Amino acid sequence: MAILIDPPRAEAHGRRWSHLVSDTDLDELHAFARGCGIPARGFEGDHYDVPEERYGAVVAAGAEPVPARDLLRRLVASGLRMQKRRGDKGVARVRGVHLPDGLVVDVDLIASARDADPERVFAALVLVHDAAGDLAVVRSVWRDEWGAPGGGREPGESVRENAVREVEEETGLVLDGPALQPVGYERFRPVEGRGPWSDGHDLLQLFEVHLATTRPALTSAHDDTSDRRWVTRDELERLCGTTFWWPLVERVLSPPAW
């Protein structure tokens, strides 16, 4: 087992950065990062970004300096590399998620300001903000938990049409499809059983939208949700902070910054 770090050569935000990885285990990587005082917001799905000024301290703490090419090779060989498009940000890899119908999946949570590949999207959710910054949530009967409104895509629908229809069915709110801003996606990888992602439809698109009114009335025309309400950011975390998808929503609501 080894913790690896490459030279601080990647440039972003007016600084140079290194990448810190494990060639064996993400838990080992998280523990090492905590020991070095590297904040959790520096994690990018399969590595931590480390600013140049911390490089020496991280090496002194036991990270093995390697060329960037070797770091990438060993990360790929470990099976821990998170595949994503350039510019997308890996947030977390959640293993062994048990779904209500008995399926078990691993889920990659990825922040992105670009639409996911529509050919792969099987569902969409929307973070709906009102004019005061509160958020609409619904309680899913199937999942027996609170979350953003949304659901599965029907044949012939675009991803935005899917999102608009589901939000209206679950909350009564009528959204403007072009106003929906992509903020990330979840990639499902089956471990046990088969789901809609088994045939290449493996992405759940997450959108965000801001309304011009404060706490408009919420209604529902379907029985797939049992309740709905407006909540503050802190109330949202209390309701949803233990769900497997929370790290992605948290990243969207509180973007990382060194």
Automatic annotation (TrEMBL):
It comes from the Bacteria. The keyword Hydrolase applies. Keywords: Hydrolase. Its cofactor is Mg(2+). This is DUF4031 domain-containing protein. Pfam families: DUF4031 (PF13223), NUDIX (PF00293). Residues 117-253 form the Nudix hydrolase domain. It comes from Phycicoccus sonneratiae.
